[in-house]
Design a protein that fits this description.
Blueprint (H helix, E strand, L loop, with lengths): L1 E5 L4 E7 L4 E8 L4 H15 L9 E7 L3 H17 L6 E5 H7 L7 E9 L2 E10 L3 E4 L4 E3 L1 H6 L5 E5 L3 H7 L5 E3 L2 H4 L3 H13 L16
Length: 217
């Protein structure tokens, strides 16, 4: 039983997966109240499906990019749950923008996934479509603003993720770009869980002591 935790930005999401189905999922926008809201939401999620923390066998968490506080809270919760178990539970840490990318259909050969970074900036990452593996990261994520981001996109691109009003206004002047709907661009922990199950099945390392957030500046 895998618990997926995403608190990287003001979009907070939790999901519980048995590897075949998403048993429960909760996603909401927080006004930077991660600490106050997260634990009650987790208890409610577990109680809804009759699962105890002792039933968990693995955890997944977004490692960044994202806000310093948001990433720290999610990682702390995951490590606390993992290290409270005996033996400690594996933790799979997944890049934040990979979760956004995993939800997108193949509408263009290039994808730019975005998440809010504050101060009118966005975290962004480029992806290329692979027929066997789906969207694959093409380079490291970075911080930019909407004007600079759009200046660097030529040809056919799909843009997905957290797009604020300024971003939607900027995108409206770029008809060559496809923009995912708010629902399609919502970063959901169900996709985080799916990515984590894939890594666990591939035998990739999931030592909880090695899980750490990644910050951009």
């Amino acid at each position: 039983m895998l618990l997926a935790i995403d608190t990287a930005t003001r979009t907070v999401s939790l999901a519980l997966s048995d590897g075949q189905n998403i048993l429960a999922e909760s996603t909401w926008q927080t006004a930077n109240h991660h600490t106050v809201e997260l634990t009650p939401a987790l208890h409610e999620l577990l109680e809804r499906v009759g699962v105890s923390p002792h039933n968990l066998t693995a955890l997944a968490v977004t490692r960044g990019p994202g806000s310093y506080t948001g990433l720290r809270i999610g990682m702390s919760l995951a490590k606390g749950l993992a290290l409270a178990a005996s033996p400690p539970l594996p933790i799979v840490s997944i890049p934040t923008l990979d979760v956004t990318a995993a939800a997108q259909p193949h509408r263009a050969d290039r994808l730019c996934a975005v998440a809010q970074a504050g101060r009118k900036r966005v975290n962004a990452g480029y992806y290329r479509w692979d027929e066997d593996e789906g969207w694959q990261a093409d380079g490291a994520p970075f911080i930019t603003d909407w004007a600079a981001l759009l200046d660097g996109l030529t040809g056919s691109w799909l843009i997905a993720g957290e797009i604020d009003p300024a971003g939607r206004e900027a995108l409206s002047s770029s008809p060559n770009l496809l923009v995912a709907s708010p629902a399609a661009g919502l970063r959901r922990a169900g996709y985080l869980a799916a990515l984590a199950h894939r890594q666990l099945a591939a035998g990739q390392p999931a030592d909880p002591s090695l899980a750490a957030p990644v910050y951009l500046s």
